Amino acid sequence: MPVKIHDKMYKTVAERVQEFHAKYPNGNIITKLESELCTDNLVVMYAVIIPDVSNPSRQFTGYAEELRGSTTINKTSAMENCETSAVGRA
After folding, report:
1. If DSSP states are collapsed to H, E and C, what string results for 27-82?
2. How do residues 2-57 score in pLDDT, each as one tens digit?
3. Which domain, by its residues, includes 80?
4. Looking at the domain assignment, is residue 7 inside a domain?
5. 1 within some domain
C-alpha cells in the first residue's frame, strides 16, 4: 500500500520490486555492499536492476548510504535499510 511522504503518495520498495518481477520475469536485481566506501559507521550499497538479462546493457543503477545509529532502524538494520534504499533509487 502506498505511503504518504511530503504530501505525495509513494509505492514502497517492496511493492515496486513485486511489480518489477511480475512485469519482467526475466529480470534481475543485484545489490553490492561497497565496502571500500564504508567506514565503521557508514554503510554504502549499490544496486543494479536489469529488466531483461538477455539484454544486460539496459540497466538502471542506484547508490544509497546510511549512517549506523542515525535513526531507530539504523541502530540495528543500517545495511538492510541501505540496500532497500539503493534498490528503490535504481
Report:
1. CEEEEEECHHHCCCCEEEEEEEEECCCCCCCCCEEEEEEEECCCCHHHHHHHHHHH
2. 888 889 998 999 999 999 999 999 999 999 999 877 788 999 999 999 999 999 99
3. 27-89
4. no
5. no
